[in-house]
């Protein structure tokens, strides 16, 4: 099975590494767009255009499924790409509002994501559909992806996040940007051991298994 993984930058490598562990028989290729990362402060039209261009090598390589390992690209582009390339299944990533809302006991969750993801219609829909009765707090993470991309994740100040978790009595933190997977450990430390930090790589692997099984059965 050939899986293509796309992200604007370093987030895709984090997802690809876990997919290689979870799906050892798959060949996982990655594509990124280091020239234009971060996508999170760009317009939807720009993100769509850049994503479409950047996934071309994966399409040419004949990937049986393409994972948009980028919440920002998923929000802006996945519906268009599914229409434009109907023969290729796309697995998109979006902030785990549904599982977070299901497990929170304090009814207070924190979603860390890029500005483009947070303002997207897809994300608003997610909140409307699954976030009822839950207080969803969205801290400013606008600089995080760029710091991770520069190889300086330690410069991200997580003290505001720690305070927010306490002030809002949040018991779940959602990593809604794959770049942040690289600092999951630090986020967990800042949030505290009793807080659940969610990111979707396991769910993506399950979704890929479903998509490829469905394709094989056709
Ligand atoms: N890794 C991407 C995501 O999941 C975004 C990083 C960026 O701003 O390019 O949203």
Structural account:
The protein is of the alpha/beta class and 218 residues long. The protein folds into 2 domains: 2-93 and 201-217, Rossmann fold, CATH 3.40.50.1860; 97-198, 3-Layer(aba) Sandwich (Rossmann fold). It has helices at residues 11-22, 44-54, 56-60, 71-84, 97-103, 115-119, 121-130, 144-149, 159-167, 184-191, 201-217; strands at 2-6, 27-31, 65-68, 90-92, 108-112, 135-137, 172-175, 196-198. It has a 4-stranded parallel β-sheet, sandwiched between helices. It is globular and about 50 Å long. The model has no long low-confidence stretch (mean pLDDT 95). Residues 7-9, 11, 37-40, 70-72, 114, 117, 145, 177-179 line the site of D-glutamic acid. D-glutamic acid (DGL) binds at residues 7-9, 11, 37-40, 70-72, 114, 117, 145, 177-179.
Structure summary:
This protein has 218 residues and is an alpha/beta fold. The chain has helices at residues 11-22, 44-54, 56-60, 71-84, 97-103, 115-119, 121-130, 144-149, 159-167, 184-191, 201-217, and strands spanning 2-6, 27-31, 65-68, 90-92, 108-112, 135-137, 172-175, 196-198. The mean pLDDT is 95.
């Amino acid at each position: 099975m050939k899986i293509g993984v796309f992200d604007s930058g370093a987030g895709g490598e984090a997802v690809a590494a876990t997919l290689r562990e979870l799906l050892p028989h798959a060949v996982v290729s990655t594509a990124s767009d280091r020239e234009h990362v971060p996508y999170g402060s760009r317009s939807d039209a720009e993100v769509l255009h850049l994503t479409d261009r950047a996934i071309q090598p994966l399409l040419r390589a004949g990937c049986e499924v393409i994972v948009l390992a980028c919440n920002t690209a998923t929000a802006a582009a996945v519906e268009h790409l599914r229409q434009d390339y109907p023969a290729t299944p796309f697995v998109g990533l979006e902030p785990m509002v549904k599982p977070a809302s299901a497990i929170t006991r304090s009814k207070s969750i924190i979603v860390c994501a890029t500005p483009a993801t947070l303002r997207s219609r897809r994300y608003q829909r997610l909140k409307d559909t699954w976030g009822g009765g839950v207080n969803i707090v969205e801290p400013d993470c606008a600089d995080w992806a760029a710091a991770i991309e520069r190889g300086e994740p330690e410069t991200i100040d997580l003290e505001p996040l720690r305070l927010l978790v306490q002030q809002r009595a949040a018991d779940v933190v959602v990593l809604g940007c794959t770049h942040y997977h690289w600092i999951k450990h630090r986020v967990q430390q800042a949030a505290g051991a009793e807080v659940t930090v969610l990111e979707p790589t396991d769910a993506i692997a399950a979704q890929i298994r479903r998509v490829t099984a469905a394709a094989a059965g056709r």
